[in-house]
Amino acid sequence: xxxxxxxxxxxGTLVQYYTRSEIPEVLHQxxxxxxxxxxxxxxxxxxxxxxxAGVEREKREAGDHRVRPLEGRLARxxxxxxxxxxxxxxxxxxxxxxxxxxxxxxxxxxxxxxxRRLHADGFRLAVxxxxxxx
Length: 134
Description:
The chain is mainly alpha-helical. The chain folds into two domains: 1-17 and 107-134; 20-104. It has helices at residues 23-41, 48-58, 70-77, 87-104, 111-120; strands at 5-9, 15-16, 106-107, 124-128. The strands form two sheets. A two-stranded parallel sheet has the order 1-4. The chain has a two-stranded antiparallel sheet with strand order 2-3. The protein is elongated, with a radius of gyration of 18 Å. The mean pLDDT is 90.
């Protein structure tokens, strides 16, 4: 007997995070959250203009369409790659960045019924996802 497995991408399939028109506002909130964290911890060394210049450099998809991890993008924006940047710090920055994105997340109305039906029919289910702005 063949195993039946269905993989779902989280964003845009099971959950809506934001609309295209909301991207600038969400990005601003996400970057502001990271800035505030770094300021509180004494790590923020850049002016707002330097931060947003870094955001502009990172605000593109990779030419080969590969996912560029959020940790690396944030480290480059805030010029943290030159410092001893701990995994704990990068994790905290990602959490700050993702907070306004996840706060907007809304599960699609049909997501749970579909998942329940597939599960009841014997399908193994998995969610695979990259990070928004990844």
